[in-house]
Amino acid sequence: MTPPASAESLPRAHLTALIGGRRVRVCAASKAWLSVLSGLLCAMYGHAALAGEYGEGPQQRLDRMAKAAQTLNYDGTFIYRNGATIQSMRIIHRFNNDGERERLVAMSGAAREVLRDRERVTCILPDSQSVVVAKSRPRTFPHSTLFESDGEFGRYYALSVHKGERIAGRHTELVAVEPKDSFRYGYRLWMDRDTGLLLKSELIGERGEIVEQLVYTNIELPAEISDELLEPAISGAGYTWYNDDERDPTVASEPVAGTQSTWHPQWLPDGFEMRDYARNPILASRDPVEHLMFSDGLASVSIFIERLDTASEPLRGPSSMGAVNAFGSMVEEFQVTVVGEVPAATVERVARSITRR
Amino acid sequence: MNDKLKEEMSALVDGELETQSASETIDVLLASDTLKVHWSRYHMVRDVLRHKAYPDAGTEVCERVRSSLADEPLHFADRPRASHRWRGVLKPISGIALAASVATVAVLAVRGTGPLPGENDTAAVPAPRVATVARSPGTQASPAAATPGPRLASAEAPAGSLRRLQWTTSEPAVATRLNGYLVNHSEYLGGAMKGMHPYARIVGYDSTGQR
Questions:
Q1: Number of Cβ pairs closer than 8 Å across A and B?
Q2: How many CB atoms within 10 Å of residue B84?
Q3: C-alpha to C-alpha distance for A213 and A78, rounded to whole angstroms
């Protein structure tokens, strides 16, 4: 048995490489290929290093992004595109011992504002001379488990991390979220490399089209944000106020633990679980509306059920507004409507499966 | 900044940029230093008029801006795309309309730094807004109109848009109900979606024709 040739015994024109545990002789002519191979390995390592930076995978990045949006102070202007409409908006967000406060202002078109604190959401709509006040929901991090690497999120979406472009003067990483079925949108999320804050997002439709887009043109992260910046520019004096709290104080607007609804969908996309249930007074609805909320962690659908009098015009069939789709049907005297940022076929299928126990 | 960029910026600040390649357009606009200057100027003027970004500026500065704008020639009135039938009534009421409308004044302020009358900048001011402003002088002349006027804010909406950000339904009552649902849906959205500012759909909603 001839012993294996030692490296020293090999001609100088050859190199020795270990591939799959076997020693392989490589001639000098293949050195160029080795260079290419090493380049590829470096690129792969670089990608792995990117994914491993901060000790995070893509799911942890999503979690970090969600927390950053809620726990940082920021003041920025972004361009928002939904369908064919493009608008410029300013967001001012503060987080301190008093909790979250934020103000979203239209910088073009109608001078609308949405103000949010831990008590209420106030929508100031000058074009309809109205102010809509609704009770706010506590913001928690309900999806932190879902985004864990061994969670089920990966069953419904393929995740990948890429080097992102420079946005609003800040370096980003791109997390691409591709659905594994046609019941939800895809997402491309550019996150600030330092803070995790979302600086650009795209919702991708079934045909690969961008159905909703948000991109910051500038953003600041001040240590403190004054109360004045969070005050509305419009007083709302002379406007019609729709205050949900005042309209019917006897109605409990706190969500009830678990579902007490007699309504439920027979079908939901895999991974959708009930996140909330409540009976709320809602603008333009005479009676409190049942609201069932389902989500897979990113995509969400809401089911609204309200009794409709004969004079009210129901929604029968589909309606849409950019990335948001809705589908309505009448079951006896109840209007059942499914609303969500998911494809039209999804809300329709959910709506058609709803039954009453 | 070339004419195409000007046109796109005008459409952008007016919420009228309708194009299939909107993403590419945004990238181009963001990459333009000149545009950024105009962009900043637009927002600065708007914020000053609303006493927000520069609260120390006070009323005096605001009034100076307003009065200087009131002295501006009405560039848009002579532009080819302005509706001919409104030309006669536009100038007499436009001073009142301008003083009353922060939003419109802000747009004009940017335009005032642009080309002079007669230059080929036909897309800079959409004709529908001019016509709508001219239709409601009584409302805009009210003293309360020192803040952004609701009627004028509505007039800023892209009347010519083919695909507005609004519910695809012919029934205003249904659209109103869906908006109520949308506010609640947005409030219940989970953590990751919060970064995408779901209320942008409310702020960006085009209520034109759905009152």
A1: 276
A2: 8
A3: 10
End-to-end CA distance of chain A: 80
Residue A111 Cα to chain centre, angstroms:
25
Write the pLDDT tens digit of every residue in B47-68.
Answer: 444 444 444 444 444 444 444 4
* Cβ separation B184–A304 shorter than 8 A: yes
In the chain, the amino acid numbered B51 is H
pTM: 0.63
Reference A338, options A288, B167, A329; nearest CA is A329
Structure tokens at B102: 């922060």
- B25 or A149: which carries more pLDDT confidence? B25
Q: Write the DSSP string, A250-312.
A: TS--SPPSS---SEEES---TT-EEEEEEEE--TT-SS-EEEEEEESSS-EEEEEEEE--TTS
B184 to chain A nearest CA, in Å? 8
Residues of A in contact with B162 (CB under 8 A): 84
The rounded distance, in Å, linking the Cα atoms of A252 and A245 is 9
Q: What is the complex's ipTM, to 2 decimals?
A: 0.76
CB-nearest to B184 from A85, A89, A280 is A280
In the structure encoding, which two tokens stand for residue A89, read together? 């908006």
- Give the closest residue to B189 by CA, choosing from A264, A222, A21, A116: A116
- Long-range own/partner contacts, residues B50-57 (CB < 8 A, 24 or more apart): B50/A233, B50/B102, B50/B148, B51/A233, B52/A229, B52/A233, B55/A228
